[in-house]
Every structure is written in structure tokens, then in C-alpha cells.
Amino acid sequence: FLTIDKKAQLLSCNTAALKLLDTTAQEGNVLTLNRTEHFRAAVGDVLAGKHAETIMHHEDRTYQLIANPVFEKEQVIGAVIVIIDITESVKRETIRREFTANVSHELKTPLTSISGFAELMRTGTVPEQDAINFSNTIYAEAQRLISLVNDIIHMSELEENQVSEPFEPISLQTLAKEITARLSESAKKKNVTLKVTGTEAWVYGVPRILDEMIDNLCDNAIKYNQENGSVTVETGEDQQYAWISVCDTGIGIPVSQQERVFERFYRVDKSRSKKEGGTGLGLAIVKHGAIYHHAEISLESKVGEGTKITLTFPKKEIE
User: Fold this and answer.
1) CB atoms within 10 A of CB 29
2) Pairing relation of β-strands 230-237 and 52-58?
3) How far is CA 167 from the centre of its chain?
4) How far apart (Å, rounded) are the C-alpha atoms in residues 103 and 215?
5) What pLDDT is attached to residue 319?
6) What residues are paired with 313 via a beta bridge?
7) Distance between CA atoms of 118 and 138, rounded to whole angstroms?
8) Bridge-partner residues for 4, per DSSP?
9) What does the alpha-carbon distance between residue 51 and residue 42 come to, in Å, rounded to a whole number?
């Protein structure tokens, strides 16, 4: 919040304004506080008697500037300037737009495939073997659509805190054994060895969400593993925390991409991800599930050697 006179001299301001403008000056011409074109233009407009609004950028922050002239007997005697930090709302809007674009693309691809094969089959001239092959493709693409829609629904539930199931005590080791047993066939097809190690570990959480989180981690560890590789799921606890880690001997994640792998639809290897049939939302669900359970995520990975992702949960009950 700043007030200036008709000559743009600073009359008053609060510490928040000085912080946003990255200055300590509390007097002098307001144009010396920020020399950007947008700021100078807004000050010029408001002292000319016009309402002014503009967006400013400083380092990694985004600000909205709103300026209104102050009149006395129809003459401008100064102005009031308000600067609002809108960084988070801009980021949310950017994420929303990217999400909408990505969902549209992800839905369009299988729907185009389904529509194309169905159009060929409806003519009744497709040989029987081709019809069977087309039907298999249509089924596979439909399953991919179902998985994508389910993942989007789960993401929405977590983000909006609309999960209806209650928290309850859960054994991470028991859950890990159930999930690895469920994924054993997938592991065999990839010649990947699955094992659960460690000690008993109890957390307070939502069974379905924890199952989805650990299943996604284990499923990725299998999909992106090396031939004859292994996946080790380890659990443990102390008085303050319980943890579960999924360690694989897979392709690894480059350091430059490790901060982004938990973003929605982000894929390290896009061609391989499509081939494996992933929706691109698995690790995003893990991230939001961790936030929902007040858990921390850590990732260690080396290209060509493997990846280890650990979820650490507070032992106290979550209200």
C-alpha cells in the first residue's frame, strides 16, 4: 500500500509494499522504487486522473498493481497504489490450463483410435481375424480411458479434500505384501523379482488411498525396470515415524527431471510411458496422497542404476 502526491513523491507506505518492491526507501519519488515499464506507465496514468491496473513480475513472483487517483475540486492531488501478490493464484490458473490441455490430449488419443477401428468394423467387410485384432485394440484403449478417468477422479477427491472414507490404523507391511502379490504376474512378465523386507510399520490413514499410492510406486518400479531386475519394498518405524520405500534396479531418472516427476502428466520417457499404458497421473496421486496424510516424499535415483522413493508418515493420529 502506497500513497503519493501529484508529483509522484512518496507520502506513505507499509513494510509489505517495500518488501514487494525490494527496497528500503520510504521517501522520494515513487518511480525510483521500481523502474519497470509497467510500474511507470501505471503511475503516469493514475496521476493523469485515470484508474490503472497492471501485472508486474519480479524474480519468481507475480504482482497485481491497482492505482486510483485522489481528487480535490476535480484536480488530481495524488494517488493510492495497492500491490497484491498473486503468485499462487497465477500458478493455480497455469496448472488448471495445463491440466485441461493434457486431459484433452490424453482423452483424444484413445478415442480417436476407438472411433477409427469402430468405423472400419461397422462396414461389415473386415476379415474375422482383423475384427478380433481391432476389438482387442478397442478394448485396450477403453481400459486406458477408464484408468485415466478413475485417476482424474481420485486426484480431484484428494485436492478438494472430498475423501469420504475415515482414517484407520493400517499395517504398511501387510499392505505392501498384498500389493506385491497382486502385481506378481506383471513382474513375472518383465522377469522382475518382487520382495518385501523390513519390520512392521503402522500408520493412521485411508486404506484405499494408501493402497493406490503404494500400488502406483510398485507398478512404476516394475514397468520401468531392467530385464531380470528387482523391486524391493521395505517398511519400518520408530517412535515418531513410519516409512515405506520402493527401490528398483530400473532405468533411473535424470537429476534435471527429478523435481518434476510428481507433476500431473509429466513423463520422463514419453514413448516408453505410452507403450506401458500409464496415465501419467500415478506419481501425482502419490504426491497428493502424501499431502493428505501429512507424509513426506523423498526420491533418490541414478540413470541406469535405479530409483528409490520413500514415504515417511508421522506416527501421531491425523484428525
Assistant:
1) 13
2) unpaired
3) 24
4) 22
5) 42
6) 242
7) 8
8) 10, 79
9) 9
Average pLDDT for the chain: 85
Whether the pTM exceeds 0.70: the reply is: no
- Contacts of residue 15, defined as CB under 8 A and 6 or more positions apart, other chains included, come to none
The residue written with cell numbers 486510483 in the block is 68
Distance CA 296, CA 310 (A): 8
pLDDT of residue 160: 76
**What cell was used for 231?**
523391486
DSSP string, the chain: -EEEETT-BEEEE-HHHHHHTT----SSBGGGT---HHHHHHHHHHHTT--EEEEEEETTEEEEEEEEEEEETTEEEEEEEEEEE-HHHHHHHHHHHHHHHHHHHHHHHHHHHHHHHHHHHHTS-S-HHHHHHHHHHHHHHHHHHHHHHHHHHHHHHHHTT---SPPEEEEHHHHHHHHHHHTHHHHHHTT-EEEEEE---EEEE-HHHHHHHHHHHHHHHHHTPPTT-EEEEEEEE-SSEEEEEEEE-SS---GGGTTTTTSTT--SSHHHHHHHT--S-HHHHHHHHHHHTT-EEEEEEETTTEEEEEEEEESSPP-
How many residues does the structure list for the chain? 319
Q: What is the model's pLDDT at position 177?
A: 95
CA nearest to 309, candidates 222, 187, 217, 196:
217
Tell me, rounded to whole angstroms, the distance of Cα 303 from its chain centroid.
23
Task: Report which of 150, 154, 75 is spatially closest to residue 106, judged by C-alpha positions.
Answer: 150
